[in-house]
Design brief:
By secondary structure, the protein is mostly helical. The chain contains four helices and no strands.
C-alpha cells in the first residue's frame, strides 16, 4: 500500500513560510484542554483513516498507555538503526 503526501516545491515553501517565518506564540495552543484535544482527534481521524489506519488504532491513541508503549519502542528502533548503519548513533 502506497501512502502519499503532497510535497511539491511550492507546498514545502508555503509550509516553511507559514511554520517558521510566521511563527508567533499566539499560534501555540494548549492541547490539554478537552475541547482542543477532541478537535485534534477528529482531525487525526479525518486525515489518517484515508491512509488506511483503523478507527480502533486511532481510538487507542486516546489513552496514555498507547503513548507509553510507543515511548518504550525508542530503544528498540535505535538498535535497529545502529545495525543498519553499522555504527553508533
Amino acid at each position: 500500500e502506497k501512502r502519499e503526501l503532497e510535497t511539491a516545491d511550492y507546498v514545502l515553501e508555503r509550509w516553511f513560510k507559514d511554520i517558521f517565518l510566521g511563527a508567533e506564540d499566539a499560534y501555540i495552543e494548549d492541547a490539554r484542554l478537552p475541547v482542543v484535544k477532541e478537535r485534534l482527534f477528529k482531525q487525526k481521524e479525518k486525515d489518517w483513516l484515508k491512509f488506511g489506519y483503523t478507527q480502533e488504532y486511532l481510538d487507542s491513541m486516546r489513552h496514555a498507555e498507547f503513548w507509553e508503549n510507543e515511548y518504550h519502542k525508542v530503544n528498540e528502533y535505535d538498535e535497529k538503526i545502529k545495525k543498519m548503519r553499522g555504527k553508533e548513533l
